[in-house]
Amino acid sequence: xxxxxxxxxxxxxxxxxxxxxxxxxxxxxxxxxxxxxxxxxxxxxxxxxxxxxxxxxxxxxxxxxxxxxxxxxxxxxxxxxxxxxxxxxxxxxxxxxxxxxxxxxxxxxxxxxxxxxxxxxxxxxxxxxxxxxxxxxxxxxxxxxxxxxxxxxxxxxxxxxxxxxxxxxxxxxxxxxxxxxxxxxxxxxxxxxxxxxxxxxxxxxxxxxxxxxxxxxxxxxxxxxxxxxxxxxxxxxxxxxxxxxxxxxxxxxxxxxxxxxxxxxxxxxxxxxxxxxxxxxxxxxxxxxxxxxxxxxxxxxxxxxxxxxxxxxxxxxxxxxxxxxxxxxxxxxxxxxxxxxxxxxxxxxxxxxxxxxxxxxxxxxxxxxxxxxxxxxxxxxxxxxxxxxxxxxxxxxxxxxxxxxxxxxxxxxxxxxxxxxxxxxxxxxxxxxxxxxxxxxxxxxxxxxxx
Length: 451
Ligand code: PFF
What we know:
Elements: H1 13-24, H2 27-39, H3 43-71, H4 75-82, H5 90-123, H6 134-143, H7 146-165, H8 167-194, H9 200-207, H10 216-230, H11 236-241, H12 250-278, H13 286-299, H14 305-337, H15 342-362, E1 371-372, E2 375-376, H16 377-404, H17 407-414, H18 425-450
Antiparallel strand pairs: 1-2
The structure holds 4-fluoro-L-phenylalanine (PFF).
4-fluoro-L-phenylalanine binds next to α1, α2, α5, α10 and α14.
């Protein structure tokens, strides 16, 4: 089942871990996790989240790695290769890739905003705004036509350049460089945040368990967040799985990535909320938190404020970059597999996705009135990629893996053809893969659609 792609892969397990962790760690960890963790009961949410991350998210990651490495293919070809007698499963691969495309469209809008805020921190524009002005500043920026579009296109250009560089020389190299920088920057932010007077209220907000806030909605949010944060369900990890070294221990690699993603989310919470509380701000989520509350927090740091603002927005941009890279790579690899040159494929996908991203970006301003029902283009994409498509894709993937793919193939791949012990297989396969994961995903889906 080997293709041209098998020559093209990560050079080592460490490189693979950095690249996949780069995909996992992104806006989801830094601007989404801390907020929903606090909102749905801190420590109580954390408990549920940990279970979902390790028992469902990591299981899906291992499944995708197995599918990818076994077939050395992208999702579009992997499914029919594994079950040539059931060619319809190819649709699942294609649905995953379509989801990647839409996620990338939304992701680019926010990444573009982040890049712009990094630039504004660096040049001092942000520092010259007074505390009451950040709300208006953000609205004005997001609703203007030119700046957000230029920022997102620039961000896409950086992403494209890495992809054109190749899997090992582009993706692996940049991830090995950026991931450690990201962790260092995040730790610097944590130290600053924790040493402020009144920081403990933020720590309590994040970690103190409040089971009364852990609603059904909170449990669903935890599962959605676990999937999004680990980049699983859409097939990105199938593509990265096809780049894994053949002797790589899939269980160990998946564990490292999962642990890394989890701790970075926690660190992000510790970097943000103690500072938010210490400076008397309200904890909010999404754009409100990152582009309106945090600049006020940075302003109150005095002369070091600008430095921390630059560091934070740089951190967020880098985290977003390694995630965007994985999304663009999945789509590029698919066209490449169909015979198109890698660079041409990457440029073509970038052109198509830039149209979607710019349209979504315009929905904050000039195209604000273009709506489907009550949803703007951005809202619609956000809803599709944030609520519906990832659990659908994840559910279909795990059903294929547990009930359609051959068990012997899975055992062979997980054990590296019998050379690695897989004593965990029974629990993994007969309990988690076949029942726990699909049933949990089904519950999320049904409840999501009923709401
Ligand atoms: N995991 C990324 C984050 O937490 O920001 C987002 C993401 C990347 C989701 C790649 C899905 C994906 F396929």
